[in-house]
Amino acid sequence: MLCGMKRFVGEAVQPDPTTFDAARMAAGGPGLPRAFAWRGRRVEVAEVLREWRETAPCRHGSGERYVSKHWFDVRATTGEALRLYFERRARGRALSARWWLFSVESDEPSP
Questions:
Q1: Which residues contact 71 (CB under 8 A, 6 or more apart)?
Q2: 34-83: pLDDT as tens digits
Q3: Rg of the chain's alpha carbons, rounded to an integer?
Q4: pTM, full prediction
């Protein structure tokens, strides 16, 4: 990542549906969007730096574990390092929100 300021965001983003990664979706994973809207601006992904999955126990007591989140560290075309995640099971008030911006790291101070 960058050596700048890292800040927690924790906000839903609106993916551009024309930019989903169809190959990932065909393999059963979330199609990481190459662009999304956040705070009124368009953010474009230039590069995927790292990805991993988070698991959670079955809600019905079977003892199995299921993927609950897909995490992505990406670099935006602006140079910012972003941490995004895809929520497998939307919950609470944000039932339609699946893509979230967890944190932003940049050399610029926070707005």
A1: 51, 52, 53, 54, 83, 84, 85, 102
A2: 999 999 999 999 999 999 999 888 777 787 888 889 999 999 999 999 99
A3: 15
A4: 0.82
